Amino acid sequence: MSRPRNSSRVALRRIWARLGIPADYARTRRLIPQREAARLVAIGRAPDDGKIIRLAPRAAAGWRKMHAAAAHDGIVLLPLSGFRSVPRQARIIRRKLAAGRTLAEILRSVAAPGFSEHHTGRALDLGSPEHIELDAHFARTAAFRWLRRRAGEFGFRLSYPRGNPHGIAYEPWHWCWRSR
Ligand SMILES: [Zn+2]
To answer: Which in 22, 64, 97, 115 has the greatest CB count within 10 A?
Structure first.
């Protein structure tokens, strides 16, 4: 495993052990380690809690172009979540465990710390004014249909389509920017 920038491998192993994440998680899920972004820029605020959303600079530039192109077509894309640190990812999992969900269930919708594309500052969870929930119904919105058609032009790809090999549920809201 390569070393995520801000958390040593040992720290990550400790976090995993505490959460009970199996050692073969990455291999069986065919997931690769994701490094934490070195630089981040603000792109907006989450509509629910008002928290500032950040992306890596090049992903942010792609987002701004995509957002403008969508607006031009009458589509409002709302950013719901961007960069997430390794400790924040661990907190999300701990909160769900505390709420009584099983780890297996949680790992179908949340990547283990160190393996979330959100660590890189290139992944963006998107909604639209009529749909800000992170659920599969987003796929029925005009915003999603627009993304399917146009997101690739701006470097964004759907990471977890139906039947993806990572054992992660269909996430029509999760788009990741990749340099071309
Ligand atoms: Zn996401």
So the answer is: 115
